[in-house]
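Form 7-S
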Amino acid sequence: MPRRKNSLISPELAADALKEHPLWVVERSRLYRDFRFPDFKSAIAFVNRVAELAEKVGHHPNILVHEWSFVHLELYSHLEGGLSRFDVDFALALDQLLAAG
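Output:
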């Protein structure tokens, strides 16, 4: 699949695009979101769902599993060196996936 064109966006534009998704934090050139699960196994199952989405859309977040039941996601476009529409699109797609169950 050919790679889509990506370009940097301002934090303000990202925040505006995510205004209906307040659990995402826009900070300078990054998007963040933290998740808490009842146990380690559930946290890892979530990480696997995130990995499936990342492979599908060709955009990969930084993922940190910590304190056995917490997952921290960080989105930014590594090659472009900042925040891009791909990051916002990934956040929206993940929220849609989670809402669908």
